[in-house]
């Protein structure tokens, strides 16, 4: 939403307190909250560590077999950057996990597969492995270009 100017995602949170409150104010039915039995909401965002913001549930999988984790709005939006939007790309999950691996590496400095799987409750070990390999390949490519200059 941030790319749409004055109506970016943060403005909803500042004006209404949360996305669900904004949806309610518009006269629509907000999403059902995630069952607390499903996954407990942490004290802070597992990606950036912010503890002073409302956390949103990020879905890796929807429906009866839902799976995901809680993230702050900024981290949630970062994971959906580029082609990682379910409404626009059938391969959104691959893109989202790649973005997650990148963001995790930038903030935590490691590419430990099991840490990423458990910290963010990701659905597929193979997707995380793919994201890690892509990240390593991109870093290697960048390092090669830097050596050429």
TrEMBL record:
It holds the Pfam family HNH_repeat. InterPro entries: HNH_repeat. This is HNH endonuclease. The lineage of its organism: Archaea, Methanobacteriati, Methanobacteriota, Stenosarchaea group, Halobacteria.
